Amino acid sequence: MSVYLKKIKRPYLIIALLCVSVISYWYIQIDHSNPPPKKVYSANADYPVLDNVYQLADKADLIVIGKFTGDRTPKIYTDENNTPIIRASISSFKINKVVKGSINDKNIFVIEPASDEDDAIYTIEGYNLMNTSDKYVLFLNNSDEEGYRIVGMYQGQYNLSKDSETVLFDSKDSKDHHKELKQQVKGIYKD
Amino acid sequence: MKRKYLLSTVLLVLFFTSVFESSAYASTVQEVDLRSANYPGNYIDGMNIYDQRVSVSSTIGSYRLHFARIATAANDRVSVTSSYSGTSQEAGTIYLTSSGYSTDIWTPWITGPAYINLITTNDGNVSTGFVVDYIEYTGTSSPLINANAFYPNSFSSVSNLSVYQAPSVATYGYSTMVTNGLNSYDAITNANIGFTASTSTTAQVRISANNTSGLDFFAITQPYTSSGKAISSIETTTWGYATVVINNAVMNSWGLTTTNKQKVITHELGHILSLNHQTNLDVNSIMKTGKLTITSPSSVDISNIQYKW
Prior knowledge:
Chain A is an alpha+beta fold. Chain A has three helices and nine strands, in the order H-E-H-E-E-E-E-E-E-E-E-H.
């Protein structure tokens, strides 16, 4: 009996060792520090086009410089049939400097026209969500909703910490337009 | 006798010169809307960034800009230059400089890029600035055409698309504009396009309106697979259905007129047919973004639609 058991155990042991080796090899090959990028869905819109930083400044009720705190919740707009039609986010923003307008609270909420979800990033016209590392200047309008509206969507948010950044535009013209506006913005707005 | 011949020769020279100049400047005039910010209100004194960059197709030979009006206060001026400086604004060749009050002004013919600058001094004197209402150009405009004018994804057929309009479309006053927009595409000859009104919320095209004051867009279109998964602009996936959302609050906040709003609606319906944006200033197309007065598909749009459908 003990001999029979010894004979059965060895093959199972070998199979088990092989399985562990394969799984370990596969796990080591995955770069866990850089997971594959999420798919980006960019909805197309007709939207106001701002030609220069003065138009942005003129249109904005509030211009602030500061940082995204990391507190972000999805905001899903639905139609009358409760079908989701737009995916956005309500993001908390800590103000370091008020350039235009007046506000008492240093922490405000802004509605970003994008949403980072488990399966993908949903954005309108390539708007890129703020990160917690960088400083931003925001051109904002008052809205009837839970946060401020960003003027012209991607045209009203600029990363002051980086000259180049990841962009989600699927159009070269939107990318060039944002870049040109950013040059003007960075020339004027500094913390 | 000699005097007669001399006179005839001069007249002939003048005639052929005018013909030559006409043909050299055989041109197209296109409506545009470039204005200093806040026009017709006053600009703010002392700001250094009032500039408009003129972006045109690379296939254009030369162009000139028509100012409907220039109005500057003392010591301020408008200039048109070939390049731009972040400190002094004006740079390169100065094509035009104007101050005071003028109407109906054409720049000289320009080749290459141009910037329209409003130079102000911080002396407390202001006026209304400028508005450019036309561009005239030689050569050919370069719109996106044929396959390049479309997304790589679409409905498999648009010969009989079912269209559902949520009650909000009528509530916010857009029913007629939607009908106008659909009819303008339906009327295109040599294109198999048709729409059927549907009361089903699962129609292929689902249009609704709202007052989304939190997001700065006029209207938005999003296609989905039949299983409800969003389709990105670069995928080659067949559409199951598409949603169109009309943002009444933002259109009103930007002062869009009925004409502008019609443009927006017809533009979005162009996306339903898979048309992508047209971006060059010289292109006449319903698929340009922004607050414009074109309300129906242009010849470029019609040609593209006939190509695909």
